[in-house]
């Protein structure tokens, strides 16, 4: 019902209100310099730049590209830590279904929260 970008913006807003984000790993869909405004300047951002990416932009963007070019092995090692969360999403989808059948926003949030709680309870055991 929501676009991925809307869900991203809502999640970033919620996370920023709760904790300070030290680092984040994003897929190619979010790999442009406009994401810099979503995070503080000391947040380490790990992305795979798009093919047509330039180094024009704010100093934070240049630092991201510089880290990527300077030591690609350690950068990619950090970037691919996002596979753990992607695998968790996949487990949740297989366990709880690929689709949320609720229509009202409050029920959608409740359904997602229940799936996340169920996932965490399964990890404890």
Compact summary:
The protein is mostly helical and 125 residues long.
Q: What would you note in describing this structure?
A:
With 125 residues, the protein is mainly alpha-helical. The chain has two domains: 77 residues, no CATH class; 42 residues, no CATH class. 56% of the residues lie in helices and 5% in strands. The chain is built from five helices and two strands, in the order αββαααα. The protein has a two-stranded parallel sheet with strand order 1-2. The longest helix is centred in the last third of the chain and has 20 residues. The protein is elongated and about 45 Å long. The chain starts with a helix and ends with a helix. 5% of the residues are buried. The mean pLDDT is 81.
Q: Are there runs of 5+ residues with pLDDT below 50, and where?
A: none
Coarse shape: elongated
How would you spell out the order of helices and strands? HEEHHHH
Number of helices: 5
Q: Averaging pLDDT over every residue, what do you get?
A: 81
- What is the topology, as strand order, of the major beta sheet? 1-2
SSE layout and pairing:
Blueprint: H1 4-18, E1 23-25, E2 44-46, H2 59-70, H3 72-79, H4 82-96, H5 105-124
Parallel strand pairs: 1-2
Attribute tags:
single chain, 125 residues, mainly alpha, two-stranded parallel ribbon, 2 strands
């Amino acid at each position: 019902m929501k676009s991925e970008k809307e869900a991203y913006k809502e999640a970033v807003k919620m996370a920023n209100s709760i904790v300070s984000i030290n680092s984040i790993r994003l897929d190619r869909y979010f790999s442009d310099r406009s994401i810099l405004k979503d995070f503080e300047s000391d947040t380490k951002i790990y992305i795979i730049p798009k093919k047509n990416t330039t180094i024009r932009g704010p100093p934070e963007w240049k630092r991201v590209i510089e880290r990527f070019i300077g030591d690609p092995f350690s950068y990619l090692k950090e970037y691919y830590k996002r596979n753990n969360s992607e695998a968790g999403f996949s487990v949740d989808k297989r366990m709880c279904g690929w689709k949320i059948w609720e229509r009202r926003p409050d029920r959608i949030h409740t359904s997602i929260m229940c799936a996340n709680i169920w996932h965490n309870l399964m990890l404890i055991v």
